[in-house]
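Duplicate of earlier report; RNA polymerase sigma factor input re-posted below.
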Amino acid sequence: MTDVHRTVDAVWKLQSARIVAGIARMVHDVGLAEELAQDALVSALEQWPGSGVPDNPGAWLMTVARRRAVDHIRRSRSFERKQGELARGLEQRDPEPDPGQDPEQDPEQDDVLRLMFVSCHPVLRAEARLALTLKLLGGLTTGEIARAFLVDETRIARRVAAAKRTLAEERVPFDLPSGAELAERLSSVLGVVYLIFNEGYSATSGDDLVRPGLCLEALRLGRLLAGLMPQEAEVHGLVALMEIQASRSAARTGPSGEPVLLHEQNRGRWDQLLIRRGFAAMLRAREIGGTPGPYVLQAAIAVCHAQARTASDTDWARIAALYGALARLLPTPVVQLNRAVALGMAHGPEAGLALADSLAGDPALRDYHLLPSVRGDLLARSGRLEEARLEFERAASLTGNAAERAHLRRRAAEITVPAAPGPTLAQAARDFLERGELDAGTVRSYGQTLRRLRLALGDRTPLPSLTADQVARVFTAAWGEAAPATWNRHRAAVRSFGAWASMEHLAAGLDRRAGTRPRAEGIDPARLEALWSRPDLPLRERALWRLLHESGAAVTAVLSLNVEDLDLDDRRARTGGSWVSWRSGTARLLPDLVAGRTRGPLFLSDRRPGPARTPAPADLCPETGRRRLSYERAEYLFKQATRDLDPAGDGYTLRRLRPGA
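Output:
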């Protein structure tokens, strides 16, 4: 990279938010504003190597981007009759900045604030808000965002594109809210900034515990917001919280990257400059006054930790009281879990354990590794070592972060207690599923149920200790809101497993549910067209989804098709006693999917089955050795691919591909 290119990159990261924000105010379209700003960036890359870097590169980029915006407005059909008047009015209202003028002195100081509120708009899903905020306000490239969150660039590009599309479809105005709406929208903005910080501070996946780049970006956004909204106490509270938490970064990991718990950290390694900045932000929040909000309360907790010279000096009673106030204001399961830790430190492990145990059946904490981790610590301090070891092992199985997983496994290994008699839950589940009389579909179905029990209760849990109450709590957390058919399917699996293990009581707390299956609503045609137009869809998924949509057949019927059943000329195939037919979209894809195969399943899985999971001959392709694609895998892939299209953010089910569903 040349010096000029490095300069362009640095200027873009510093000034892109201001440029995009200024252009968005002119064109009232965030996506278009970014495109015009990118055009200015391309012009800089073309011209600066020859002409040299301007004295004020930010102003140069803004000038070029504004000219592009005015040209676009003049060409816009919607402004044909008033194009000259409108363009002149915009030029008068938004005069081109003097290239010698610092962009910081732009009279429209709230442009960036508007952009922040738009990119964090509640109409967007959380993942889309994160990606769009980092793209527009952080000046990060798609690749940089993807690397930060350990996902591929395509996924980030989809999120950003879907976010822009949603903002346009919902006609989100480029203005600042007021009154009660301002408080609601500000909460969304603060939440996005803190999510970015938390992902950097405690990475949810990957090998590293900390991603400093995301922490720094969140701090930069928080400080920017504090400058734009100096009279908002919650903004300063968030900045104080992040500054103080970031001050511990150097002490949070050991020589091998392993996590170091707060009470074990070398406080001499805490960054005193960041602590002082955090204290200053907290003072500003207190000076503003008013009832403390959630970020001010969390910052007050962080201040308590920072003020303690040693871990033993920590005022845990005050921290527990602050968590009590926070729980009344924000009664989320995660806040209650943190309160359990504080209660355990202030009033003894049993006090914390009572609260932590009450959270065990909460669906929001179903796969949250910190719940068993906290319980393990409290159990160990209570002398209940065997239970503590099981909880640490369960926490290790739930975390996606390699450093945390290794740390939790070490904590479990440090507890040496005699093994309980009898088989473990994992051993019994494996023996149950590996019986010869179960077909492949039943093994998959029962395996889903037992996998959830193992995740929730721990692989090493002694089978004889398993109770009906434990199973009922797992069911409530995992499938309490599920359709009756789903609940009953998992209930049948537990009944069968209990009968096999001579523990019929396991399903005693699970009543059969009655109900009818609701008719699935079809996918909006515009969103369906957006799905078909994606260039990165694998051939198998593209053919399967097209066939389901064009045929209107049941998912199970389509997945059961074999190559030898196809009549490609007549565009139909026999399945059981009926026919499945399709139209031109599927007809173009099937020959490439078949790829010369003459028999076996039409839709194949990605890999060959392992020796312990050999499918029935009818579900195995004799030419490739791969098995038939399962309903569960096909459903998962479709949900993942359509999460960005679904306004609810959950992804669609395959049944919704049927016309008129």
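The mean pLDDT is 84.

Merging into the original ticket.
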